[in-house]
Automatic annotation (TrEMBL):
It comes from Candidatus Rickettsiella viridis. NADP(+) binds at residues 214-237. Its EC number is 1.7.1.7. Residues 9-336 form the IMP dehydrogenase/GMP reductase domain. GO terms for molecular function: GMP reductase activity; metal ion binding. Catalyzes the irreversible NADPH-dependent deamination of GMP to IMP. It functions in the conversion of nucleobase, nucleoside and nucleotide derivatives of G to A nucleotides, and in maintaining the intracellular balance of A and G nucleotides. The keyword Oxidoreductase applies. This is GMP reductase. Pfam families: IMPDH. Coiled coil: none annotated. Homotetramer. SMART domains: IMPDH.
Amino acid sequence: MRIEQEIRLDFKDVLIRPKRSTLQTRADVDLTREYTFKHSQFSWKGMPIIASNMDHTGTFAMAESLAKHKLLTAIDKFADLKEWKQFHAKHPKLHKYCFATTGIKPEDAAFLDKILKAVPTPFICIDVANGYTQRFVDCIRTLREKYPTKTLIAGNVVTAEMAEELVLAGADIIKVGIGPGSVCTTRLKTGVGYPQLSAIIECADAVHGLGGHLCADGGCVSPGDVAKAFSAGADFVMLGGMFAGHEECSGEKIQEDGKWFMRFYGMSSSEAMYKHHGRMNAYRASEGRSVNVPYRGKVENTVLDILGGLRSTCTYVGAQRLKELSKRTTFLRVTQQLNEVFAALQVNEVVNDN
Ligand code: 5GP
């Protein structure tokens, strides 16, 4: 056993230092990014934010709404072929904003092949809770050989050496995050994890050194956290909880004390296990929660709130483009984030006031 003494940081441990800027207004800030991916050589331009491939958020309705603002959606892996075909028939151009999600079982590969034959989406998301297994690396290698022009996002990992290994195996984008998620209980059940801001910083350095890209996945609870993830070096940010509870999400809508809520659960929760596999294997523990989140209407308001926040962050540090944000960032370690004295008294929230 050994102990690493260096302190690792989460979003809540830092703030971004403001810098002198010549920008006139936040409307001048360009948030679109353009990437050419290492292995696929595919060039993509858009807003680098992805709705998570969870049952609740990785829906075709979400893709339809997010694509209007050029954001991406990782469609959950349980969406069936008929749904993919119907979506493609209705919106023949939107597949370029969608990831097809797959696991590492042989039947996952066969199903993925059917989807890709029916819908030419350029992105594949290979998603496992633990990206540290040889089986996962082998799966990336196989998919890389089979689909040389598809852009592969793979994870999750949190350390430089494994992020590098996944890039070398054929992944274009490395998904980073173990344990930070809003409905994740991995840290509680296993004691394993890595503070998310430090994980992004460490992996970004490694992945960029090899010409790969990085997606920060999990732990963002506010537009400020999304800005911190990009500032730390993420090329994409994936969101679950922040996109939960919207009209575009799937799942039960519940009324309690006159207020509306929506069911949201972790993909390793016992609820997800029973839903998709009809059982919970005795050898594994649930590593996810089930919660009822307040219903929040259309996702567009949330999208505009996030993009407005990001533009404002860029203005504070003098970054004319999102691309410049991490270069212009100095993080300050802090002991307090917010003044919460009236937080419980808040009556309403004004969004899109810019
Ligand atoms: P959030 O944005 O809600 O904080 O985090 C979303 C991410 O949490 C997902 O993209 C996924 O990586 C992770 N996640 C989703 N469900 C579970 C779960 O049941 N257990 C764990 N450990 N992580 C989960």
